[in-house]
Write a structure and sequence with these properties.
The chain is an alpha+beta fold. Helix content is 38%, strand content 14%.
Length: 689
């Protein structure tokens, strides 16, 4: 990875004065600490209902009964059929396959339709005067695949002689000698490579997978970023062998659990949110490491550490643990606030506000609190100002920021399946054993009534008749299992994931053939289309724009500047690769017609075919410039190959040449001639050597 020209000093920050000594823990009324804690308490209270839904979804996923489930004294079975886990993992698997089908983070950068501030394309007019000047100066003409920059570097000081007669014109070249350059596309692809490189450095694929899992399970997934973080790269000196790591400032993105996210309760989406708060659970060493990050106040961190651990488990944390034993935690609760604060509140806290912000009533800031101490207070560094959290719903709830997940959709059917399965098991246990009735008046008193094979009961005098009777309990487990299967079908309907989509066997009807199961799978993908579209709209597109703005703001590389747009590429993988590849090959066959060939973008078609085959197009497909270079190499290689004299018999094992010069191809073999052989129609001179 190239070293990014990032500097946290270039970010305009608003820092609280770091006073020495112990400050009073209690903030005055209207203070910043009270301001943040009040909003945290409000968001926490408003989230109670959502926490109950998430806890139910988590228990169904784990296969655990909650405290609200009561069993009668006659119920013996406690079985829990974890169909919810299967459905959630099926949804998570399909989301991962769609998002990472091409092996890259699904964000694409392209130039806008009408780029502003940068030329879409231009070409160099290589007329006779330029060729004569190049020949007189001893300069090779523009080579195939050569860029303008490499051309200027190659000619060096001779560019002054060519300068007056160079003709650079807008638009693509119309002849092979007019090499076309596309500055807008070059800038877009360089920006795309830089963003992908930054995402790889921050393990964005792993964080996106974690977000997708919570999105399917709880109905909401959250990511944050980008943030400038110093990353250490291992390096050892060659001569001394001393460990000398390289520190680079790179943008990082990460996953945020729904349990630690407290947004503005009055907002229905992130665009309406006035603030969000993330709750961190930090150890002693993690809290101390914050002092090494920019604009964190080391003095306040030390004071917060002196107060001791402050993390208190929430009610849902205790409910999610497998043990009922409460163990004191040695962790610190740290609140990270992003949002708007009234200027008056900052004035009361004696904060120096820049002149350009004096007229604003609300100021966007980032605040970190722990044990009532302000660990960090800075201006929102993003331009334009954004809250760097991205909330994506699995299914959109138009009246809430929180979405609806797979586990919630099948909560009722999961309860039904558990009930019918318990009834079937209890009934099978009863019907599998005999109910024994004993008439003790006909038996000798004091006998052991235990029943086992070969058991002998002694009778005594009395009326003749049977003394021991066996009664079989009726078996109705089949009826219970039929109801269980009906509930499972309802679960398929409520989640949109049929059972055959995650490995059910014994499919009958249309699903018995390959084409039939392909049609069923294509129909089953309909439910995931909306989910992936939500990920594109609520997560990938805003995150890509934030990374784009980050690089435009803090990375001063002129080659990535341009009028560009960010596109989320998640929905590109929704079409089955086999179908997409088949359609591309059909279109490629259509444009083989010489009349239609000029209207086709073969470089794009080849790249898309590579994508449909799950190959990296940047590694297996050439650009137009590289293709021109490759063609020149092949042409040179073919010209250097020795050709047998005309009329000479080819050696054994080699195809015989057509000596007639009529283009008849290889004699007696039925093989098609190759370039360079006599009879090949594309050879110069009518196919003759």
């Amino acid at each position: 990875m190239k070293e990014d020209n990032l500097s946290t000093d270039s970010i305009k920050m608003l820092a609280v004065k770091d006073t020495s000594g112990d400050m009073p823990r209690d903030e005055p009324a209207g203070g910043i600490v009270s301001y943040v804690e009040e909003r945290y308490s409000k968001a926490e209270t408003a989230r109670k209902t959502e926490e109950t839904r998430w806890l139910t979804a988590y228990r169904n996923y784990r296969g655990l009964y909650g405290q609200d489930v009561k069993f009668t004294s006659t119920e013996k079975s406690r079985v829990f059929v974890k169909v919810t886990k299967t459905k959630v993992l099926a949804a998570y698997g399909q989301m991962s396959e769609v998002l990472f089908g091409n092996g890259k983070f699904p964000i694409v950068i392209d130039p806008t339709t009408l780029p502003e501030g940068v030329v879409e394309s231009f070409h160099i007019e290589t007329n006779d005067e330029i060729k004569k000047a190049e020949k007189a100066a001893g300069i090779e003409p523009l080579l195939p695949g050569e860029t303008m920059q490499s051309y200027m570097e190659r000619i060096g000081s001779m560019k002054n002689e060519l300068g007056p007669i160079e003709e650079v014109r807008n638009g693509p070249g119309l002849t092979p000698s007019q090499i076309t350059f596309e500055p807008a596309m070059i800038a877009a692809k360089k920006m795309e490579k830089k963003i992908h490189d930054q995402l790889e450095e921050s393990s964005a694929n792993k964080h996106l997978r974690s977000t997708a899992l919570e999105c399917a399970l709880f109905g909401t997934g959250i990511m944050k970023g980008p943030f400038a973080v110093d990353k250490e790269y291992p390096k050892w000196e060659e001569e001394t062998g001393v460990y000398s790591p390289v520190i680079k400032t790179v943008p990082m993105v990460s996953n945020v659990s729904v349990w630690n996210f407290y947004p503005d309760p009055d907002a229905h989406n992130m665009e309406e949110a006035e603030y969000v708060i993330e709750r961190h659970k930090m150890s002693h060493s993690e809290l101390r490491k914050l002092a090494n990050r920019p604009f964190f106040r080391k003095n306040e961190i030390n004071i917060a550490l002196k107060f001791g651990p402050s993390y208190t488990k929430e009610w849902w944390e205790q409910a999610m643990e497998d043990t009922a034993t409460q163990v004191a935690t040695e962790r610190f609760e740290v609140l990270e606030f992003w949002g708007n604060v009234e200027r008056k509140t900052l004035d009361d806290h004696k904060v120096d506000i820049p002149k350009e912000l004096k007229d604003k009533d609300n100021i966007a800031v980032n605040i970190w609190l722990c044990n009532g101490r302000i660990l960090r207070l800075v201006l929102n560094p993003f331009t334009p100002s954004i809250i760097p959290f991205y909330v994506v719903p699995y299914e959109v709830n138009p009246y809430s920021m929180w979405g609806v997940g797979v586990a919630e959709n099948m909560d009722d059917t999961q309860t039904l399946m558990n009930g019918f399965m318990r009834m079937a098991v209890d009934n099978a246990a009863l019907s599998g054993n005999l109910l024994i009735e004993v008439d003790e008046t006909n038996l000798v008193p004091g006998q052991d009534l235990q029943v086992y094979p070969g058991k002998v009961f002694r009778r005594q005098g009395g009326a003749p008749g049977q003394a021991i009777f066996g009664t079989k309990f009726p078996n109705v487990s089949n009826e219970n299992m039929q109801m269980f299967d009906k509930a499972r079908v309802l679960a398929d309907e409520s989640t949109g994931f049929p059972s055959f989509a995650h490995g059910q066997t014994g499919i009958s009807g249309v699903g018995r053939t390959a084409s039939g199961i392909s049609m069923l799978m294509s129909a089953a993908n309909g439910s995931i289309r909306t989910v992936v579209k939500n990920i594109d709209d609520y997560l990938l597109a805003p995150l890509g724009k934030a990374l784009f703005s980050f690089n435009m703001q803090f990375d001063f590389d002129p080659e990535i500047k341009g009028d560009l747009e960010v596109k989320a590429a998640g929905t590109e993988s929704l079409m089955a690769n086999e179908v997409r590849s088949q359609r591309l090959m059909q279109f490629l066959g259509v444009v083989q017609n010489p009349i239609l060939a000029p209207f086709a973008r073969l470089d794009y078609i080849v790249r898309e075919i590579a994508k449909s085959m799950e190959l990296d197009p940047d590694k297996v497909a050439n650009s137009m410039q590289r293709a021109a270079v490759q063609a020149e190499i092949l042409k040179t290689f073919q010209a250097s190959q020795p050709q047998p004299p005309q009329g000479q018999q080819a050696p054994a094992g080699v195809q015989a040449q057509d000596t007639t010069g009529s283009g008849g191809g290889n004699v007696g073999t039925g093989s098609v001639p190759v370039p360079g052989e006599q009879g090949f129609s594309a050879n110069t001179g009518g196919g003759q050597q």
